[in-house]
Design goal:
disordered C terminus; about 35% helix; six-stranded antiparallel barrel; Pnp Oxidase, Chain A; alpha+beta; four-stranded mixed β-sheet
């Protein structure tokens, strides 16, 4: 498991999959232009690390445009490696439920799941090395968004939410637009879990947008929501060990302790949409680790990167599910919208 995006960057560099851009690059347009040129290279080019962005944060782009880098994120030599494990585990789960195979099989499966279940860290969480109680979103490396003229965006963020009724965690990909220094905008599709949580809450819905940390979290956020399985248990399945979580600093929500940067806040249920059709996220706190790096997808590189992620999701989740569940259940288990859907 990568403890931070820095550790992943070091691995990319060792494998010849990274180009470091040390000259100043404007976040408004320069990063997108350079990334667009790089992704058009054979095999998606290389990942780009912009070290001088005019902010305190280097920016990493073009990670998902390559199948090889996608496999590095997953920690496998090929998609087939993890797909076989996924199909085997799914088969065990469905067989146990359908045949009531007995105590021994149930205990064996429970032991497997306990090895992947997320844990609360007892150590100081690195994602809270620095705490900004007064939010200054303008200090972050937002880039121009081609889809919403005049707005700047952080994309993707792994948006953490919690079901107000049963406390179940959810993780979904999203884009974060800057509206002012302490207010961000997010688009919430009506079919998303976060939309359902907003309906269930009585007053405010706490959220935490995480960037960096283990890059696998970004992929898990885009994966189909399978039977309400905890997203961090799914990450633990991929990594073979539990994810360390910590309590957010100002919101009643759990986040990966190894995140590079976390934007905490809430949505006011009674509040309407912004003129751009976005829900307002009132930011209550920004925390980050020392030496944080911000991974991003640019507007220019989204199509290529989305397609690589979509192919991985198809191979690792969709195909095994099709072989282990009926077509009737398939519609309930799979999400057709992958990596932002219609955002």
């Amino acid at each position: 498991m990568y403890k931070s995006i820095k550790q992943f960057v070091d691995y990319l560099k060792d494998q010849g999959q990274l180009t470091v851009v040390s000259e100043f690059t404007d976040t408004a347009s320069g990063i997108a232009e350079r990334t667009c040129a790089e992704e058009s290279e054979p095999d998606g080019g290389k990942a780009l690390l912009f070290t001088d962005t005019g902010t305190a944060y280097p920016v990493l782009t073009n990670v998902f445009s390559s199948k090889r880098r996608m496999e590095m994120v997953l920690g496998v030599e090929s998609y087939e490696d993890i797909a076989e494990r996924a199909e085997c585990t799914l088969s065990e789960v469905f067989a146990l439920g359908q045949k009531m195979r007995g105590y021994i099989e149930a205990v064996s499966l429970a032991r497997k799941f306990s090895c992947w279940t997320p844990v609360q860290t007892k150590l100081h969480p690195s994602c809270q090395d620095s705490i900004q109680n007064i939010a200054h979103l303008g200090l972050l490396p937002f880039i121009s968004d081609s889809g919403k003229e005049g707005l700047k965006v952080l994309s993707p963020v792994a948006l953490n939410s919690r079901n107000p009724k049963n406390g179940a965690r959810t993780l979904e990909p999203n884009k974060l637009y800057i509206l002012d220094e302490c207010t961000a905008g997010i688009a919430i599709p009506p079919h998303s879990e976060i939309a359902r949580h907003l309906e269930l809450c009585t007053h405010r819905l706490p959220l935490a947008a995480c960037l960096g940390g283990d890059p696998l979290h970004t992929f898990i956020a885009a994966a189909p929501k399978i039977g309400g399985i905890d997203p961090y248990l799914l990450t633990g399945f991929f990594r073979g060990k539990p994810v360390s979580l910590t309590r957010a600093f100002t919101q009643d929500i759990e986040i990966p302790a190894g995140s590079d940067l976390v934007i905490e806040g809430y949505i006011q249920k009674s509040e309407g949409l912004s003129p751009d059709g976005l829900m307002k996220l009132h930011v209550t706190c920004i925390t980050h680790r020392r030496g944080a790096i911000i991974p991003m997808m640019t507007g220019s590189g989204t199509a290529s990167e989305k397609e690589t992620v979509r192919q991985a999701v198809e191979k690792i989740f969709i195909e095994p599910l099709r072989r282990t569940v009926s077509r009737t259940n398939e519609a309930l288990l799979l999400s057709e919208e992958v990596f932002y859907g219609s955002h």
